[in-house]
Amino acid sequence: MMSAVAESSRLRRLLWVDCGAALVVGVAVLAVGGLVAPLLGVPRGVMIFMGLVNLAYGAFSSSLARSDAPSPRAVSSLVRANLAWVVVCLALAVHFARPGSWLGAGYALVEGVFVGALALAERRAQGLTAAAAPSTLER
User: Fold this and answer.
1) Buried b / exposed e along 74-112 (16+ C-beta atoms within 10 A)
2) Which one of 36, 55, 57, 120 counts the least CB within 10 Å of its CB?
């Protein structure tokens, strides 16, 4: 069994990956979303929405990653928000899965799978951290 410090470190690394990925994708989508929207078969407004949501996620996960001991409640909120984003991405993928929009559907699907994998890894790391040091749940 890993120590509480090692588990907390693992969770914080996952939070940094989450925040870095969200910020990079958010900036990239806002920077080139208008140009690639026609190629993806997705309205420009949807691209802007996705970029802004990614920036919001990035800001929140960054605040958790910078914390010495991220609040379990805040991490759980991030995991739930990530899982909600998976549902949104899957809905977008289904909506845009029509002729001429396969690239847009694929983009939404890949983002949903990536965010879902991160959410599950963060939840698992949070559970392991709590099991290793139950007293940290009271912070």
Assistant:
1) ebeebbebbeebbebbbebbeebeeeebeebbebbbebb
2) 120
Domain boundaries, the chain: 4-132
Q: Are 34 and 47 in contact (CB under 8 A)?
A: yes
> Measured between alpha carbons, how far is residue 105 from residues 35, 42, 44, 51 in Å?
17, 9, 14, 16
Tokens (6 digits) for 66: 């910078």
Q: pLDDT digit string (tens) for 73-121?
A: 999 999 999 999 999 999 999 998 877 688 999 999 999 999 999 999 9
Over residues 12-65, the pLDDT tens digits come to: 999 999 999 999 999 999 999 999 999 999 999 999 999 999 999 999 999 999
